[in-house]
TrEMBL record:
Residue ranges constituting the ATP-grasp domain according to the UniProt record: 93-288
Superkingdom as given in the UniProt entry: Bacteria
PROSITE patterns attached to this UniProt entry: ATP_GRASP (PS50975)
UniProt keyword Nucleotide-binding present: yes
UniProt keywords, alphabetically: ATP-binding, Nucleotide-binding
The protein's name: ATP-grasp domain-containing protein
The species this protein was found in: Amycolatopsis rhabdoformis
Keyword check for ATP-binding: yes
Length: 288
């Protein structure tokens, strides 16, 4: 009898964006039957699944508390609920900075607090968000930024302020993907600020391409992953998947922009043919 893996989407994208299809044959070869389900569908049954894998739950920013409550009801969830809770609020970036990980400088501004605006171009975005929705870049004039901040605060959201990394305009970001704590592949992402939304309305459209990390990039990504696991009190092998997004700072050195541990796009369409096999092996490892 095949073991069951449930891939979880949302009402707007019940079967994801198509990227995960590449993993189905590899999972089948290892004895897994895969089906999709929507996380908040009252008719969906997650109790019989050997593993429930978050893949396209991209509507959570507006319903995070409800989403986290649901995560807590799924004992076979990957990644686990405690990881999702830690990772779905970008305040973890401050924790990484405090741990000494090279990270894009991050300031949190809670509702009711005043911002101290940087003197160089900067980005303001919600601390709970996905796909760059709600993120905006501003220059020296902080009037627009103050208005954006007020809108976030009026919606009850904590804001994140970060200096804009100009390298994104020419180099974009590089995303490094790990399965079971082991490096698998990487891909580049073009700048998304000002881009059009995907038809689902859940995230901004991206341009992706395969990539090989330059010298020093993987070391920063691995340091970040080690620090994140230490902060959460888990082993890297306990993470079915992880994605570390890196940008170049103004001095050219790599900086962590985000660590994606909840429901990241894994870039199978921009990876080598072995990536789905590595993912399937990591799924099996989670059950060992």
């Amino acid at each position: 009898m095949k073991r069951e893996a449930v891939f979880v989407g949302c009402a707007e994208m019940p079967e994801g964006d198509g990227d995960d299809v590449a993993a189905f044959a590899a999972l089948d070869d290892l004895g897994f039957a895969v089906r999709w389900a929507v996380w908040d569908d009252p008719a969906a049954d997650f109790s019989t699944a050997d593993l429930v894998v978050l893949r396209a739950t991209w509507d959570y920013p507006d319903r995070r508390a409800e989403f986290l409550d649901w995560c807590e009801t799924v004992p076979t969830l990957a990644n686990p609920a405690a990881v999702v809770r830690w990772n779905t609020d970008k305040s973890y970036l401050v924790e990484l900075l405090d741990a000494g990980v090279p990270t894009v400088p991050t300031t949190l501004v809670e509702p009711g607090e005043q911002a101290k605006w940087p003197k160089t171009p900067f980005v303001v975005k919600p601390s709970v968000g996905a796909g760059s929705v709600g993120a905006a870049r501003f220059g020296a004039d902080a009037a627009g930024a103050a208005e954006h901040l007020r809108a976030l605060h009026a919606d009850g959201r904590t804001a994140v302020i970060q200096p804009y990394q100009s390298s994104v305009d020419t180099q974009g970001e590089i995303a490094l993907v790990y399965f079971g704590g082991v490096y698998s592949h990487a891909f580049t992402k073009s700048a998304m600020l000002g881009a059009d939304k995907d038809p689902s309305g859940l995230f901004l459209a991206e341009k992706l391409a395969p990539a090989v990390p330059a010298s020093g990039v993987r070391a920063v990504a691995e340091d970040a992953l080690d620090a994140a696991c230490s902060l959460m009190g888990i082993l890297r092998a306990e993470l079915l998947y992880a994605r570390v997004d890196i940008v170049r700072g103004e001095d050219g050195h790599p900086l962590v922009l985000e660590i994606e541990l909840a429901e990241p796009s894994l870039g199978f369409r921009n990876a080598d043919a072995g990536a789905p096999l590595r993912f399937a092996s990591a799924v099996r490892q989670q059950l060992a």
